[in-house]
Amino acid sequence: MSVRKREWPVALALLPVFLIILGPFFWLLMSSLKTEAEIGQANPFALPAQLMWQNYADAWQIGGFGELITNSLMNLAGVVALTLITCAPAGYALAKIRFPGREWMFYAIIFGLTIPVQAIVIPLYQVLFNLGLINSLVGITLAQVSNGIPFGIFLMRSFFIGVPDELVEAAKMDGANHFQILLKVMLPLSTPALQALVIISALSTWNDFFLPLIVLISPDVQTLPLGLVRFASTYASQFRLVFSGTVITFLPIILLYLITQRRFTEGLTQGALKG
């Protein structure tokens, strides 16, 4: 029996799971292209008689999704950049530089993975308030970066540990310092891990609702998840607008994941194997 034939039973067994997962997304997409009358029909799974692309234009204009997407992109870019700048050097230091208390420092950072953000939201809010960063994109960016640093350091350290020490020693013999070793040796080798960290940070930042709810107050600085909730509560009776706004919110990040899923998987796998 060929490998392809042996895979058919597995594919058939996973088909119901596939339908259960993608069914709600397909229903939402089809509903966003219907008229209000069609949405109210007895059969909610009926296909639209005509694709109402105008629903997206109306939702975009009424809900101000252009400004919301701009805020989310600025927030995402800041979080990803600061996460890379912070976690890559820290992961290298904890993996390749021997200094007193290194293991205890790593355990303290990993302990941060066990603390839910809800448990520290009050002191986090107080810190941001004292710094004057409440209701600002800078404030939410710093809050999300601090929340993602423990995992980012863990991922990068796991990858750097797998890099042979001989490469580091050879670079030192050539006169390179630790910054040069990180920049010219380690980072080029850690591209899969860096890509995985970028994707994880982007996904969590784009979909984050809790921290923006605490930090961002004014509609002009809110990100997409907050804007969608405000939009849905205002136009709760106009389902075509709510469905279209929902698709606008999650479609970009789904496309990002579909485009980068192979690199995402490779980065996590290599980091796990080397750790």
Report what the structure shows.
This protein folds into two domains: 3-54, no CATH class; 64-274, MetI-like (MetI-like fold, Orthogonal Bundle), CATH 1.10.3720.10. The chain is 77% helix and 0% strand. It has helices at residues 3-31, 36-39, 54-63, 65-96, 102-111, 121-130, 137-161, 165-173, 178-189, 191-207, 210-215, 224-234, 239-274. Helix 3 (54-63) crosses helix 13 and helix 12 packs antiparallel against helix 13. The mean pLDDT is 87.
Q: Could you list the spans in which at least 5 consecutive residues all have pLDDT below 50?
A: none
Average pLDDT level:
87
The end-to-end distance, rounded to whole angstroms, is 37 Å
Structural class determined from secondary elements: mainly alpha
Specify the helix fraction band: over 70%
Report the total helices: 13
The arrangement of helices and strands along the chain is HHHHHHHHHHHHH
Q: Beta-strand percentage? A: under 5%
Count of the domains: 2
Task: Specify the CATH homologous superfamily of the largest domain.
Answer: MetI-like
CATH class of the largest domain: Mainly Alpha
Instruction: Compute the number of strand runs.
Output: 0
**Main sheet: strands, sense, barrel:** none
The CATH architecture classification of the largest domain is Orthogonal Bundle
